[in-house]
Design brief:
Layout (H helix, E strand, L loop, with lengths): L2 E12 L10 E16 L5 E5 L4 E7 L5 E3 L9 H10 L6 E6 L4 E2 L2 E2 L4 H16 L6 H15 L7 H8 L3 E4 L3 H4 L3 E3 L6 E6 L6 H14 L1 H24 L2 H22 L6 H13 L2 E4 L7 E6 L2 H9 L7 E3 L3
Parallel strand pairs: 3-6
Antiparallel strand pairs: 1-2, 2-6, 2-9, 3-4, 4-5, 7-8, 9-10, 11-13, 11-14, 12-13
Helix pairs in contact: 1-2, 1-3, 2-3, 2-4, 7-8
Length: about 325
């Protein structure tokens, strides 16, 4: 029996840092997806294939659900399958596991749209179906979040996994979603245009999250004030999405981004790379909105506008080869 499951990547439109402390997040599921396939093979071993290495790795599994790599060890690329097998307590025989995350890469680098969350949710769903484990949705969410945490050194809110599980364009949720397994689906306004811009500068989300946590400790009163302001803006932004009022959405996104600027300066998060600052200047000149995507400070930026002509003009100005537009939805 062959099982194939896909899950979307994600980008945080808002709430990327504040969600860690209970703030409301708005998350877009992207058209770029991870595909996981499990199928039987003729043996004598199980096979793991990852698009990240374009290579197959044979393995066996012992009675304690531990993987033994027969030839080469895929190391971090095999982490998801290794932990999933241990976590879900399966002993595959003559099974092939294919993880294709190529759509979430550009020039052999991650784009910055949540590949690990997508892999976690797709892999858990595929294993559940193929091995007939009969997990319910709650079990699948818990298992996917746990698998994601293991592979992210227990960092993050888990909401990117919720987004991959929900798989419904745009959602709104907070940390309670990981416990209550609930979220709110949001209708994307027809007159609101969005696109991504891949920059040439990479970033480490884990390092930025470390700076964020350290900054909260060193600047406790400052953070309380900023977080209180952020919660109010995010509530207003939520109301704007419900109304499908694109002017209000962009206005509150701008207010929200100002708070991210404050955090960036106070906590030295290094979110706004030189390339992001350049792109923000172009957007400002045209009267449209630009921000770095999610917690990352390199990799990917997002452009929002309810003016199609200005939106198009922005991308006509990107003549530098360091910038590559990418359609997100």
């Amino acid at each position: 029996m062959k099982v194939e499951i896909s899950a979307p990547g994600k980008i945080f439109l808002s709430g990327e840092y504040f969600a860690l402390d209970g703030g409301l997040a708005t998350i877009l599921s992207t058209k770029q997806r991870v595909n996981v396939v499990i199928d039987e093979n003729s043996g004598p071993n199980n096979i793991f294939y990852t698009s990240a290495k374009s290579k197959s790795f044979p393995f066996t599994v012992d009675d304690e659900f531990r993987i033994k790599w027969i030839e080469n060890d895929p190391k971090e690329y095999g982490s998801f399958i290794k932990h999933a097998i241990k976590q879900m307590e399966i002993r595959p025989l003559n099974s092939s596991f294919f993880i294709d995350s190529s759509k979430l890469y550009h020039d052999n680098k991650k784009i910055g749209i949540g590949s690990s969350a997508a892999i976690s949710s797709a892999l858990v769903k595929a294993i559940n179906t193929y091995f007939d484990l009969q997990y319910n949705r709650s079990n699948i969410i818990d298992m996917s979040i746990e698998l994601h945490k293991i592979n992210q050194d227990n960092r993050g809110s888990g909401l990117d996994v919720i987004s991959s599980i929900a798989d419904c364009d745009l959602i709104e949720c907070d940390k309670m979603a990981t416990k209550q397994k609930t979220w709110t689906a949001i209708t994307w306004p027809n007159s609101l245009f969005i696109s991504g811009v891949i920059t040439n500068q990479s970033s480490s989300t884990s390092q930025m999250l470390e700076r964020y946590q350290k900054g909260k400790i060193l600047n406790e009163e400052f953070f309380k004030t900023v977080f209180s302001d952020a919660k109010e803006i995010l509530k207003e932004l939520s109301f704007a999405w419900q109304l499908e009022d694109t002017n209000l959405i962009i206005s509150f996104m701008e207010e929200y981004n100002m708070l991210i600027h404050l955090l960036n300066e106070k906590f030295d998060l290094q979110i706004f790379s030189r390339e992001h600052q350049f792109l923000m200047q172009i957007a400002k000149q045209l009267g449209i909105f630009y921000k770095p995507s999610g917690a990352g400070g390199g990799d990917l930026g997002i452009v929002l506008s309810n003016d199609k002509e200005k939106f198009t003009q922005f991308f006509l100005k990107l003549t530098d080869s360091n910038f590559r537009p990418i359609n997100l939805r």
